UniProtKB/TrEMBL annotation:
A Pfam family it matches: PD40
Designated name of the protein: WD40-like Beta Propeller Repeat
Source organism superkingdom: Bacteria
Family: Belongs to the TolB family.
InterPro entries, sorted: 6-blade_b-propeller_TolB-like, WD40
Lineage of the organism: Bacteria, Pseudomonadati, Pseudomonadota, Alphaproteobacteria, Rhodobacterales
Amino acid sequence: MVSYLEIFDLATGDSSTLFKTARHIEAPNWTPSGADLIVNGDGKLFRVPIHAPDLLMIDTGLHASLNNDHGISPDGQTLVICDKTLTPHSCIYTMPAGGGLPTRITDKTPSWWHGWSPAGERLAYTVVRDGEFGIATIPVSGGSEALLIRSPHHYDGPDYTPDGQWIWFNSDRGGSMDLWRMRIDGTEPEQMTDDAAVNWFPHPSPDGGHVLYLAYPEGTEGHPPDREVSLRLIDLDSRKTCILTTLWGGQGTLNVPCWSPDSQRFAYMRYARP
């Protein structure tokens, strides 16, 4: 499978390929400095410099079963990763941005990271606890898990708004997979999309003006790879949604926060059609 690391420019409406590889890579993050993207592949983590694109491996110590739930702190100094090398299910760790020994953050598994609070003090993540999906937060240094919402429905993709007041997520609690938001204490859940598409992984822009997300065709179960999908954008002033582009992708395309620091561009993965 050929992987294409793409950058979409909101001003022009155009997408360009930054990097192409025969290796399967996923889930780009854009660093706060604007200089690099972070991706995963084959259980490892890589830095991709914007001005000289290449896969530069980041040292993650013994951890070699990373999934595509990873990100970087608002100050750019710390990475968060999810790995199951030492645990039966996904566990959250933090580590120096340049590489080094990861520190375990979540005692309970499975835990899949998706959002970092704008002040840098808490992590938001998806969990399964007592057989039910939910969304939790935890101090970045570890400690007590705060389970914000949980039920027999599916919950995923929690990401903070830049003002720190809301957490966006996707859930089928309304009957189909749509985007929702709630206060950071789990109160006031509010459905934000209601259409035929199967909507996943909302990412508020750093300037608070838009929410980017991944949309599957009606009837899709879960968030599989190798599908015709679209990237969509909600304008939070008008509450209008537009389709930015369609592509071959799905899992790995847009799992984690991927906006450029200036909110003018975002990174995503597309894949060669079989």
